[in-house]
C-alpha cells in the first residue's frame, strides 16, 4: 500500500491497485476535443469567438499602416504597394467576412444582453436588433460618404 496526499480532498489517502482504478478524482468521462462540431449552435459560437483573431490581425495591419505613415512617403508607398499584392487582399476579404459574421451574430444576441423597458413594458427583441442594424447602416453610410468625397 502506498500513501498519497490528495490535493483536492486535502487529506492522506491510502491506495491499493483496486482503489486507484476507481479513484473519484481520476474518474471522469473523456470528452473529445471536437465535441462542439456536432451542433450548429456550438459551431456558430466557436466561429464567432474565432472572429476576434481576424479582428486582431486587421488591427495589426492598421498599426503597420500608421507606422508606415510616420516613417515618411517612401515607406508609405512601399506599404501601399504591399497592400496591392494578393495576400493582403485575401486577408482583408477574410477579415471582412469574419467581422460581418461577428457583427450579425452580436446584433442578433444584443436583445438578450440589453433589456430596455419603457414603463412596465419591455421593448421587443426585434426592435432592439433592428435599431442596431439601422445604426450600423447609418455609420457605414457616413464613413463611405466621407471616404468617397475626400
Structure description:
- Helix content is 67%, strand content 9%.
- By secondary structure, it is mainly alpha-helical.
- It has two domains: 1-30, no CATH class; 41-149, Up-down Bundle (3 helical TM bundles of succinate and fumarate reductases).
- Strands 1-2 form a two-stranded antiparallel ribbon. Strands 3-4 form a two-stranded antiparallel sheet.
- A hairpin with a 4-residue loop joins β1 and β2 (11-15).
- α2 (40-70) packs across α4 (86-113).
- The longest helix is centred in the middle third of the chain and has 31 residues, at 40-70.
- The protein starts with a strand and ends with a helix.
- The model has no long low-confidence stretch (mean pLDDT 83).
Poorly predicted runs are none
Please count the helical segments.
5
Overall pLDDT:
83
Give the count of structural domains.
2
Strand neighbour order, sheet with most strands: 1-2
Assembly state (oligomeric): single chain
End-to-end CA span:
81 Å
Indicate the radius of gyration in whole angstroms: 26 Å
Structural class: mainly alpha
Amino acid at each position: 500500500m502506498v500513501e498519497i496526499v490528495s490535493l483536492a480532498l486535502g487529506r492522506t489517502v491510502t491506495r491499493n491497485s483496486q482503489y486507484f482504478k476507481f479513484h473519484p478524482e481520476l474518474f471522469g468521462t473523456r470528452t473529445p476535443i471536437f465535441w462542439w462540431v456536432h451542433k450548429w449552435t456550438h459551431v456558430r459560437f466557436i466561429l464567432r469567438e474565432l472572429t476576434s483573431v481576424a479582428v486582431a490581425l486587421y488591427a495589426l495591419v492598421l498599426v503597420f499602416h500608421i507606422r508606415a505613415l510616420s516613417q515618411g512617403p517612401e515607406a508609405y508607398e512601399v506599404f501601399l504597394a504591399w497592400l496591392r499584392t494578393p495576400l493582403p487582399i485575401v486577408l482583408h476579404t477574410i477579415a471582412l467576412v469574419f467581422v460581418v459574421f461577428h457583427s450579425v451574430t452580436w446584433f442578433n444576441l444584443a436583445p438578450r444582453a440589453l433589456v430596455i423597458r419603457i414603463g412596465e413594458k419591455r421593448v421587443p427583441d426585434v426592435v432592439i436588433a433592428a435599431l442596431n442594424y439601422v445604426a450600423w447602416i447609418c455609420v457605414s453610410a457616413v464613413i463611405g460618404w466621407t471616404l468617397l468625397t475626400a
